[in-house]
Amino acid sequence: MSTWLSNAWYVAAWDREVDSRPLARTICGVPMMFYRKLDRGIVAMRDACPHRLLPLSMGLREGDSIRCRYHGLKLGPDGVAEEMPLRSEKANKGICAEVFAVVERYRFVWVWVGEKEKADPALIPDLWPCSAKGWRFDGGYFEIASDYRLAVDNLMDLTHETYVHTGSIGQPEILHAPIETFVKGEQVFVRRWMPGVEAPPFWAEALRKQGQVDRWQICQFMLPCAVIIDVGVAPVGAGATVEQHDQGVRGFVIDVMTPQDETSHHYFWGMARNFDIDDDGFTARFRQQQGGVFLQDKEVLEARQRAIEANPHMKLSAYNIDEGGTRARQIIARAIKVQRQQPETEGAAK
Amino acid sequence: MSTWLSNAWYVAAWDREVDSRPLARTICGVPMMFYRKLDRGIVAMRDACPHRLLPLSMGLREGDSIRCRYHGLKLGPDGVAEEMPLRSEKANKGICAEVFAVVERYRFVWVWVGEKEKADPALIPDLWPCSAKGWRFDGGYFEIASDYRLAVDNLMDLTHETYVHTGSIGQPEILHAPIETFVKGEQVFVRRWMPGVEAPPFWAEALRKQGQVDRWQICQFMLPCAVIIDVGVAPVGAGATVEQHDQGVRGFVIDVMTPQDETSHHYFWGMARNFDIDDDGFTARFRQQQGGVFLQDKEVLEARQRAIEANPHMKLSAYNIDEGGTRARQIIARAIKVQRQQPETEGAAK
Amino acid sequence: MSTWLSNAWYVAAWDREVDSRPLARTICGVPMMFYRKLDRGIVAMRDACPHRLLPLSMGLREGDSIRCRYHGLKLGPDGVAEEMPLRSEKANKGICAEVFAVVERYRFVWVWVGEKEKADPALIPDLWPCSAKGWRFDGGYFEIASDYRLAVDNLMDLTHETYVHTGSIGQPEILHAPIETFVKGEQVFVRRWMPGVEAPPFWAEALRKQGQVDRWQICQFMLPCAVIIDVGVAPVGAGATVEQHDQGVRGFVIDVMTPQDETSHHYFWGMARNFDIDDDGFTARFRQQQGGVFLQDKEVLEARQRAIEANPHMKLSAYNIDEGGTRARQIIARAIKVQRQQPETEGAAK
User: Fold this and answer.
1) Which of A303, A310, B121, C22 makes the best surface tag, with the fewest CB within 10 Å?
2) Contacts of A304 in chain B (CB under 8 A)
3) DSSP letters along A137-195, please?
4) pLDDT tens per residue across span B200-217
């Protein structure tokens, strides 16, 4: 019984990670490899030659095809055999590697691991700030040795900033601001609205002036596994509300988690912002700083995973602050259950 | 079915290993952490926050309490919640981390992993030379990748000194001296009495004169898992007997084994002696030398553990020399069996 | 159900690897150790002392015997106890370590892991070029983290040379030459006969003249697991045929695979040749070069093993080129099945 939804789009890579050379990455337990064709379209294929299972990612690229480096079986971008090991033999079109639906959007490469017929790009979660005009997006990637859902717990409750990120982004005000948690369809929101507070250094610099601001933090969970956090400040009196707040400076912390297996996941993180969008130096400095902060999360998530395994009889508790994470997990669990009860589309197992 | 006794005192650490910063160590399969309070008393607590299981050993010390470094739940030295992650919330006294009975004695920190009601300090095995007036005790610690009972086998038969410790403490006389093994209550003794032998270099130096001596080696096994070895020499004619021998120089090799899990254990070793007790240089040199000797035992115990796993159909044999180890293992097995048959004290599972 | 034949001779080591000091090596899941006696005969013994299971390979050699480095039990080359830990005790002849039949032949040390009564040296596969007069044999050893049968697949189809050994021995002609596969008793042959081709550089140099040659590659599989490959060239018109071809230069690529466990094996490789047999420099250069080529095979075999484990639902496919490997695997499987159905020789379990 897997702990993830399989009929769903998962981020497999940053757009910049995939080029003509194959990239190997295991997504939801499936070894895959990814490469770009000459038209820059992306191929996602099971990373095992249908002949002898050598990883195709060790193979040789030829045109839009891949040739296995073992016996030279050549497969097209559709996975179908184009040339047999013995050149004199006619290619057997019945020989093929499994290919996966793949879409490039929001700077990410998305792949669908479940029933191919259901791979509708409209189901990709809406990460609009990652590619909207007037916004700048950058970030990085970590492999994290924990169940991907521990990252959801972590991101849907920012209380942890004070302790995990002491000395970086943690701030005592956050502990005192009331939080509001609510569910909208299959999304979960956790909101903190902090009116009339002193602008913390990062935001004062972004706003380019000191003084009192209204500040917000709005975490939003989306299936199968993204958390985007709307953050920013606006000068007091500019009219910003928790619902509408484009009067000052605004960013979205972007977090996308993709299961690798039951106890590890791929973590794609970054920041989309609507200020200083042409400043490459700031972009690079901020990415470096954010990477340092998220390494602290990685340390905590991996320690929790080990502790869960070392204390098998202990249950996790949930306090008030955990409501966001708890609801997000419920939505994941419910979606898995619903999917399991649906009769499989005919031919899906193909 | 565990291979160790759980209602028993185990050494968790040297006294000097525990200070205000938490020390993480797994005792009998239970992840624990240890720290000292302001009054120097020691706290032993399960190393997992009751909230999200992050190891508390990663936490922040505040007064006598520990604050989890994840969401800031603050627990008192009794494990009970003192402050919630959201400061505005009232502390829920029902939230608590498991704490363990702990006693500091004989330079060691002892912890009780079983039923808390039965944790009587009078049950701590008697290692009097480790803290008696007129004696000096020092030693070290190794983690050893073997079942802890392999160390008992090793220590209750000193025949191995000749081969394992060739070039250090091994001596051919030991092979020829008759040994006497007997059981007294739950203790096992293995005695070698070597009257009128040439003093070996180490003991001649300790005695500060050459010549014929009476020499002894008396191994004593105590539950749950300590072996202390009474060793020394007295000048011939001074009246020393195997029962009473304070006429010359005398030491106790101290060995305490604590299971970490089924295939690894903590090994606390040292030497308590009644000569040159104020000589810090000798103490340090001897500890270094003894550590080197015991590293040879570590190598052998770990090789045995691997060999047991690689030859699953082979049984261990026991020869005459193994009688001490065999009897010690019987006492451990019987104590485990007795404990299992006792009805659990009410509330013990709390 | 093991994947190998146990009543069979396996290569445990090169002759040069075994000297007076014990060599530890696990053969077909059995930890063994090997050493030479004073008459240079070889002893193969289970690598575990019958007393406490310490590996005997850690022991001390004395005459033709081995003394355990733990308590000093001394065993003769027949595995029988010669001296007890306590010298005063009479040696108990019932104490013995298991010994294995061992034969030195063709530069290798062969060991029999199954029923001792059936260990007939006549069953050793015929690797005559490794020790025949007028031939020179040299090679090396790798431990490979794959099922040993993946190496059989690899060697019984040389199509892989083009891709795996690009830049070393791969050549396009090989892809176009027709292959002929046939079974003779328990042996499998895969033959390529390439008449009137340009001599490739290596063979032109061996032949010491340029020009058209007849070339051959004949793979031969033998139980329990050897593949020897008859390779060479003869000048066109010299009368060489696929059946008889000593008119030019000839070599045998020697490959012997011995299971270590289900997912790893010992690989003994080399080249026996009938030209330049006294040229030590060429011998050394060739061995180095061949080792480089076979490291590429090691990389592929280990990647396949990992891929098989990562794609548990995928089956291996077999194409025309795989017929040799497929038939060799059938012969292994059939031999295992036959052996399993035979009533065990009485006393075999001794």
Assistant:
1) B121
2) 52-54, 70
3) EEEEEEEESS-HHHHHHHHT-GGGHHHHTTTTT--THHHHS-EEEEEETTEEEEEEEEE
4) 888 888 999 888 999 999
